[in-house]
């Protein structure tokens, strides 16, 4: 399977971000903890060059906890602030706030030496589609200030959000990049729902996912669906259909429905805490 999805509004959004970055002190990059490298737009490093950087390892509740800790060390070693996060839970915002306080203190001291007083930290929130940027902003703000949706492409334009006297956030649309050099990146983004499902071959994607889970987290499929993991991927999905009683007319297993359920249950965590990548 090959994956490319770069609708026209993303080009426009990238140009706008290049203009807005001039106003920004801090870039907050929201990534998916299950695949931190695949879910990072490589263009952001160039765009944010010279700016303070905070990486939010979002959806960490869906990823392998021991692997999350390795990723936090990885990003800190690169000079980034990094926080593990489930943006749906407001209690998780304490760690973000503590890190922002640290960032703000350093910036305010720098401003003070230059004779600048009471100018808030301006932070741009960036990330690819469907990593939870808007959910994070709403949780952090304590109210619904950004549109959310469980699909890519919900945020279409920029929006300034004043959190408090110290911090202003600029929400930006999720943007990908024109070409994935490594097809594994596209595969991982399809697994987590950052590529429009309408252009995805669900059957093939589910078989790739079954292979990955069987090899990397043996026992997870058997525990969830009571299937024999010694079977090949298409046989496993057929068995899922039979176990779940997904049948078409004539008692034929509904392969497509079973494939969709496998993908959905990976995405929502029903299959367990699964990381697609390790540092």
TrEMBL record:
Required for a late step of 50S ribosomal subunit assembly. Has GTPase activity. This is Ribosome biogenesis GTPase A. InterPro entries: G_CP_dom (IPR030378), GTP-bd (IPR006073), GTP-bd_ortho_bundle_sf (IPR023179), GTP-bd_ribosome_bgen (IPR019991), GTPase_MTG1 (IPR016478), P-loop_NTPase (IPR027417). GO terms for cellular component: cytoplasm. GTP binds at residues 58-61, 130-135, 174. Residues 10-178 form the CP-type G domain. Belongs to the TRAFAC class YlqF/YawG GTPase family. MTG1 subfamily. The keyword Cytoplasm applies. One of its GO terms (molecular function) is GTP binding. One of its GO terms (biological process) is translation. It holds the Pfam family MMR_HSR1. Keywords: Cytoplasm, GTP-binding, Nucleotide-binding. It comes from the Bacteria. It is found in: Cytoplasm.
């Amino acid at each position: 399977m090959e994956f490319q999805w770069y609708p026209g509004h993303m080009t426009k959004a990238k140009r706008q971000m290049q203009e807005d970055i001039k106003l920004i002190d801090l870039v907050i990059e929201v990534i998916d903890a299950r695949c931190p490298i695949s879910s990072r737009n490589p263009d952001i490093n160039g765009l944010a060059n010279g700016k303070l950087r905070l990486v939010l390892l979002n959806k960490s509740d869906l990823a392998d906890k021991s692997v999350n800790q390795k990723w936090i060390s990885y990003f800190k070693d690169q000079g980034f602030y990094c926080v593990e996060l489930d943006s749906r839970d407001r209690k998780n915002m304490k760690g973000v706030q503590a890190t922002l306080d640290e960032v703000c203190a350093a910036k305010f001291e720098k401003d003070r030496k230059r004779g600048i007083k009471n100018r808030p930290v301006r932070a741009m929130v960036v990330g690819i589609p469907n990593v939870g940027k808007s959910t994070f902003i709403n949780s952090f703000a304590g109210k619904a200030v950004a549109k959310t949706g469980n699909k890519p492409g919900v945020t279409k334009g920029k929006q300034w959000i004043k959190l408090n006297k110290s911090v202003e956030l600029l929400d930006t649309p999720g943007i990908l990049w024109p070409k994935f050099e490594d097809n594994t990146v596209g595969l991982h983004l399809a697994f987590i729902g950052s590529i429009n499902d309408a252009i995805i071959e669900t059957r093939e994607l589910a078989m790739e996912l079954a292979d990955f889970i069987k090899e990397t987290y043996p026992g997870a499929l058997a525990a969830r669906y009571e299937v024999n993991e010694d079977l090949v991927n298409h046989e496993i999905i057929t068995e899922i259909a039979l176990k779940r009683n997904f049948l078409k007319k004539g008692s034929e297993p509904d392969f497509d429905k079973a494939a969709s359920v496998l993908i959905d249950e990976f995405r929502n965590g029903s299959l367990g805490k699964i990381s697609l990548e390790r540092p």
